[in-house]
Amino acid sequence: MKATALEFRLRYWIHTAIYVLGFAVPWNHWLHLDTIRTWQFLAAWVSRTGWLGFSGATIAVLVVGILFAFAGAALRTWGSAYLGASVVIDAAMHGERMIAAGPYRRTRNPLYLGTFLHTLALVLLTLPSGAIFTIVLIGLFQLRLIFAEESYLSAKLGEPYREYCAKVPRLLPALTPRVPDSGARPAWAMAFVGELYMWGVFVSFAALGWLYNSMLILQGVLVSLGASLVARAFIPKR
What we know:
The chain is an all-alpha fold. It has one domain (about 35-125, about 155-230). About 70% of the residues lie in helices and about 0% in strands. The radius of gyration is 19 Å and the shape is globular.
């Protein structure tokens, strides 16, 4: 179930491929499954339940998307600040030290959880079949990466890491810290630089979503991706 070393090294490209396929939904052209975006599909479903009118439901789904985008960006930035942006973007696994500070006192994998929350926002811009495809594949791939990292860290750090795993949840954060603070100091500036794409997606939803144009938000997402690739060049390499 765990990812191979090659999968971990290529994780950003694999994520990208899944997202691209989720947006392209080539099977939709063959099978004619969907005609509206997931955003409108969910709004129509809420409207049919009688809870809200279609206009109110459209706004409600947008607000949920904004919240998911913000939570994903904030959680990844928080985790990156303590782990180190250079470690986050590195192709290799690292086990030089155990991080028990910031979000790592509540969840072992804040970065992967942040990515999944980000995905829940992003799929609102896809067709429903693309949304299901993306959520399932991103979720499975995240789990494969988590199992690979945990196996590596367990072998590298030994019993202290296994004790840490026994106390701190794998994904869903505990309401209170489960382990003492290790005293690591966050590097916020580089964390924001490293997660510029995530914040760009949040801004795209929050600023452009009120125009109710999925393609315009998607353009903002693509601009954020390009800006992030440039910004990451300024993160010192390990």
